[in-house]
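Write out this protein's structure.
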Amino acid sequence: MYKRLTYLIPIWVIPYYLWTSLPTRAMSIVWFGTIYLLAYVFLILKGKQILFALSRDPLILILVGLSGMSYFWSVAPDVTFASARSLLVQYVIVGHLAVTYSLKQIIEFLSKLLSATGVLSLLFVLFLPHLATRSGRAGGVSWQGIFLHQSVLAATMALAIISLVSMLIMEPARRKQIPLLLSLGMIGICAYLLLFCGAKTAIVGCFASFAVLPFFFLKKIKGVGNRNLIFLSLATIFCGGCVLLYSVKDIIIVEVLGRNPTLSGRSYLWAYIIPQVWTRPFGYGLDAYWHNSDLVRAVYVMLDYPYGNFHSNYVDMLVGIGIPGLILIGMFAINLIRKSLILAFTYRRIEYVWVLQIIVLISIAGYSDSFIGYLRPRTIGWVLLSLSSVSASLELGRLKRHHRSSHLKTFITPTLIQS
C-alpha cells in the first residue's frame, strides 16, 4: 500500500509546478496546502536521508540561503519571504524525490504527465479555443493550451519531447509496435503544439538540445579516448556556437524567431534596468522589483509600456539576488554540466544525457522568458535542474564508494591467498 502511495506522489507533486490554468482558486489553495504538508511529512519520515541528500549539493543550499537573506534588503519583503519559503519547500520536495526515485523513474513519470498535458492542451485548442488561445498585440493568435502563457506551453512540450525520446532510448521494450506507435504519436502531438504555439525560443532550445545526443553513441576512435573525444568535441561546439550565435544574433532574432530586433521591447527594458543593478549589487530582493509601486511607476514613465516582468530569467535573477546570485547560478550550471558529463560519458548513464539536454533547453529558453529557468519558485525547470543536480551528486558518491570497495577487495584478496 505504501509503495503504491509513493508512486502516486509524483503524479500529484509534479503538475503543481507546471503553471497550468486548470485549478480553480479553491483547488489551488488545497494544492498549495498539500504540497507544504507533504514537505513536513517527508521531513518527519525521511528527514535524515533528505538532509544528507541536500547536503551533497551545497551550491543550491547557498542559492536558497541567499534568496532568503535578500529579504533583509528587499523592496517588497513580504513577496521575497513568500518566494524564498516556496523555494525551501520546493527543495525539500526535490530531496524526497532524489532519495525515493531513480532519475530514470522521474523521466518516466515526467514523460507520461507532460504527454497528458499535451493531449489536454490540444483538446482545449480544438474544442475550447476561447480558453486555450489569446490574441497578441500584433493581431495574431497564440496558443497556450491548459497553461497560463504560450511560453509555458512551448517549454513544457519541449520537455515532453526530450523526455519521450529519452524513454524510447532507455527502454527497448517501448520499441514494440503498440508502445512505439503510442510514443511516436505523443511526440507528434507535443511537436505540433510546440511548432504552432507561437513561442519560438523554446523551439530553438529543443532542437539545440538534441545536438548533445549523438555524442553518447560515438564509438571509440583509434588512438583517441572516447571520454577525451567527447569533452573536446563538446567544448569546441560550445565555444564555437557561442561565438557564432553572438555574431548572427540579429539574424536569428529577426529571420528565425520572427521578432523585431528589440525582442518586442525587451532590450529597452534590459538596457534600463541592468545599469541600476550596479548601484545595488545584491539586488532588490527575490521577485520583489515588480511589487514595488514606485519602481514600477518609474518603468512605466521611462519606457511608456506596462511591463510585468523582465522577460528574461537571467535579468530576473540579476535584479532579484544581484551579481553574487548570478555568479552562483553560473557556478551551479557549470558544476551540473561537469557531473552530467562524467556520469553520461564515463559511466554510460544515458539519463544524464537527458540532463544535459534539459540544461541546454532551459538555458536558451530562459534568455527571453521568465517562466522557466534557474531559481524560479514553483516552476518545473528549476525543480528538474535541482533534482538532477542532487541525484547526480548522490550517484557519483555511490560510484566512488563502490570503486573504493572494489579496489579494497582486489588489494585484500591476493594478500589473503599469500598468507
